[in-house]
Amino acid sequence: MGEQNPKQRLLNVLHQEVADRPPVVCIGGMMNAAIVDVMNTTGHTLPDAHFDENLMALLAQDVARYTGFENIAVPFCMTVEAELLGSEIDYGSLACEPKISKEAFSSVGNVSFPEFKGLPDTCRANTVIKAVRKLKDKRLDDPVIASITGPFTTAASWIDPITFIKEMRTNGLGAHRVLEHVTEVLVEFASELVRNGADVIALGDPTATGEILGPSHFKNFALPYLNELIDRIHKLGAPVIVHICGDIKPIEKQIMNIRGDAISTDAMVNLKALKEAYPDLTTMGNLSTYLLEFGNPEKITQVTRRLLHDGIDIISPACGLSTSTTLSNINALTGTVKKKSKK
Amino acid sequence: MSQLKDKLFQDLTDAVVNLDEDKTRATAQQVITEGIDAFEAIDKGLTPGMETVSRLYDEQEYFVPELLVAADAVYGGLEVLRPYIKGENNGKLVKIVIGVIEGDTHDIGKNLVRIILETEGYEVIDVGRDVPPDRFVEKAKEVGADVIALSTLMTTTMEGMGEVVELLKAEGIRNRFKVIVGGAPLSQAYSNKIGADGYAPNAKSAARLIKRLLTAEPVVA
Fold first, then answer.
1. Which domains does chain A have, with CATH numbers?
2. How confident is the model over A229-261, as pLDDT tens digits?
3. What's the ipTM?
4. Do the Cβ atoms of A90 and B72 come within 8 Å?
5. Residues of B in Cβ contact (< 8 Å) with A217
6. Which residues on chain A are in Cβ contact (under 8 Å) with B155?
7. Among A200, A248, A289, B70, which is disulfide-ready with B53 (CB 3.0 to 4.6 Å)?
């Protein structure tokens, strides 16, 4: 087989077709690789790039060029969705990612549901959509991955998270109503991203973990909305990567019910064992971001080789990268995957 | 009387474990009506209930939503019972200043630790998330805290924890406080490195750690 280009390779893996080797990617959003080293080199910096589609597109390309990840990923935070719903955002700094400074509501009981009339022109969601369009127009070899925060996490960024998590038990109907509204908004955002050229949608739902929710709440409050969103994206023709944070053991049986095209996991998950248990699953991951920050290139190379040897389908970091991670360490990861001998 | 007392204590425990705040409050009210000692009801009714919930949480029978609802039941029971605690039992509570170090997005873990500690009878002063190191020191001095509990989920903000210890040393008040750390990227080794008193990987072990650190102290509740 001849060498595939990065877009073909990733799409083939996601469609369970033959690829010449595993891709090495970093999906953006909560897991973005806009590290300080890259930004200081190119001058395309955060937080400015959160607001400007040109800068956002340039920074996304810088990241791919310097890190060796085989995709372009936007945005560089996971607050676009909550902001769209009315939560207050602290935009952070060069080295520190944006965060929710105040959720729009303290409880599901006092949510007012505005009729959702599509994405306003001025929102940052639109900045991301425009950045995707710009990247698409460049006809790059790398796939454009647009990252979206999952329904449960977005709901828990719209409403005080501790209260929201509790209200699954004390006000289940209210929690469902919130999740339905959030999912509707996310479907619209995702659809625009696909229509404007995103090749792949990545969903990160870091509050909907097995450790926080357990199997029953995950099944009732996370899975149906995740699947609704995935189905709607699939209808538009884009594959979906789902990243699950934390230990998946409590929800392992549910993983096969997620209708995404690949499951990305945190570092503590034994992906090899997961693959053996569920051979149809397309696995992605899961190089420790702690190792990426504090390890050395030799050790990172060694762990990356093990992931390749274990037959992990897509190689990537396991979680959000620290902005002070060095380029030499990231390049040890991406370089090792690219050196894998062609079949 | 003793039979009724034992039954009410068991009812309190069961109500907490069954995540029933209304039942917990009603039973606590009955404790007061019957003239039963409020402190004993907390000690032998509410506390064993929360201990069982914590154990079920450790065993992954319960998860975070259950832990939170059980804590609300305990808070409800405490609200009813606390005004009736008499005499020496109502002495100085151990005070803990807790918060997430500067630059961090997440505070679910910190909130869980706070809730477990509160349901175990500590007075917890929550300084919130994204807190600069000097704010921890100021607050601990202001309230006369016994323990400073620092949390982070991000490697980029870990250094702020060491800074808290350094600030305490610089002011010559390091020995007045136990400093404990927790959060995903941390370890006991890191705790040792920055000169903290201990590390806890989760909410329950934070409570155990504090109990252990304070055992040698005269202020134990």
1. 6-342 (3.20.20.210)
2. 999 999 999 999 999 998 899 999 999 999 999
3. 0.89
4. no
5. 63, 65
6. 289-290, 293-294, 322, 324
7. B70
